[in-house]
Each structure stands twice: as structure tokens, then as C-alpha cells.
């Protein structure tokens, strides 16, 4: 291996208390007294893209739920964006209403949060155009491919104009070409309006390509065992996947992950 694996990693606890949009501080989650996560400290700066990787059960989704305010920690604290509607969430499944067209799927949650109907539809159309579905606003979910349905889900999350976007393995069910296209879309949208993102994935290369920083959670106890800054500009330049700096970064994350895997009995 040529990369600078864990030498380049810095412990999460070493992060300063710099201005951040969201932060977990020594957060612990337990289910029926069994530890599910932590203690985990994770700070996300405005406009920063962070990928969370770790074995199944390491606590990645739990960390996202804490950041989303969907559950509270048993110990430690969670800092979240002050504004209401500042956090968007994209799940692994697009979770679209099958009876509604793409526009309504995006507009209805806005209307339910108090946005007048005409404005909600206008914002839905803008969000759908931003994800490349400007010509599919009247399509029902069954008329859309898996990648298109995920784009609608992304448009729905973006339509609230979040400062923080949480994505829980959003592209896991899609083929690799579609996944790569969606990652490029995320970078393009981020370049137009740099919002913070926390992206959960099992795919080391996807994490290293998308994010400016990759945090590795331990399978044993859901602590962060590595926090690896990713080299290179965002969005990625043409041919970045073949760049030695990218290949080294992938190895650094993979090495952190191999240290974070459960030890076979
Ligand atoms: N509602 C729940 N009740 C009980 N245990 C739970 C609950 N949700 C999660 N857990 C447990 O908490 C731990 C962390 O789960 P979590 O889903 O956050 O892991 P993950 O890293 O996202 O896993 P995966 O990659 O498989 O999605 C696991 O041991 C899981 O079984």
C-alpha cells in the first residue's frame, strides 16, 4: 500500500470547537441498555461534506438520527441548526407517495409545513429542475426509474432549502453508473449552494470521492476510530478516480475500516 493510512487520520476528539452547523459531543445511544452508539463526537462545519463509514451495526444510522433530532442521546449532547426546517433527510428508499406525481411528492410536505400551495408547487418545480427532472414533474413514481425516484426524494429534501442534508445510504439500491451520476449531481448542487452534508455509505470509494472528510465508526462500540481528510478539490476534476492522491485516500479509509471491523472469535 502506498498511501499514508492512519498516519493521516486524526482522532475525532482532537477536533476544535470551531463554528459548526451541527455537532455530537460524547453522544451515547442505548437500546434496552445495550450500547448502540458512542460516545461519539462529530462536528460538521457549514458547507462541509462528511461521509460516515463503518460495518453494519456500527451506529451510522443512529448518528444520523441524532443529527436529525429524531432521537435524543442517553448521554452527551447534540447541537443542531437553530432554524426550523434547516435539516433535510434522504433515506435509502425514496419513500414517495405512489398516487402522487413528482411535483406533488415534493410540494405536499412544503404545504404541510405551512408554505402556500402555489409557492410550494413553484419551489417543487425548481427543486425538480435542479436534479434534472424538470420535464418529469407530472410523472408518477411507477413511471420513474430507481435513479429518477431517488432524484425526486433528493428534490423533496432540497426544497426546504436545508443548511444540513443527511443522507442514509441513499444510493445503495442503484447500479454503479447511476450512483456515480447522482454523486456528480450532489457535487453540482453543492457547488451552486454549499450546504453541509453527512452521507452514510458502505462504499469506501464513494465516501472518498464525495466527501471532504471521512469518519470511520468502530463496529465494536460505535466510536469514531479515524477521521480522514480527503485530498483534492470538490467537485472532483475529470479523471479524479485515477489520481494517485485519490487512490491513496481510498486506501487510508479502507485501512481505518479494517481496524474498525469486529474481530472474529
Ligand atoms: N430501534 C432499535 N431498537 C433496538 N436496537 C436498535 C434499534 N435501532 C438500531 N439498533 C441497534 O443499534 C446498533 C446500531 O444500529 P444502526 O442502524 O445505527 O447501525 P448502522 O451502522 O447504520 O448499520 P447498517 O449499516 O446495517 O444500516 C445495532 O446494533 C442495531 O441493532
In short:
With 265 residues, the chain is of the alpha/beta class.
General description of the model:
It contains seven helices and nine strands. It has a six-stranded mixed sheet with strand order 5-6-7-3-8-9, with helices on both faces. It has 265 residues and is α/β, with parallel strands linked by helices. Mean pLDDT is 88; it is low at 1-17. The protein has a domain at 12-86 and 162-260: 3-Layer(aba) Sandwich (Rossmann fold), CATH 3.40.50. The structure holds adenosine-5'-triphosphate. Residues 31, 36, 54, 56-62 line the site of adenosine-5'-triphosphate.
CATH class wording of the domain at 12-86 and 162-260: Alpha Beta
- Helix/strand order: EEEHEEHHHEHEHEEH
Q: What's the alpha carbon Rg, rounded to whole Å?
A: 19 Å
Low-pLDDT stretches = 1-17
Number of strands: 9
* SS summary, helix count: 7
Spatial strand sequence of the major β-sheet: 5-6-7-3-8-9
Query: What name does the CATH topology of the domain at 12-86 and 162-260 carry?
Result: Rossmann fold
Would you tell me the overall average pLDDT? 88
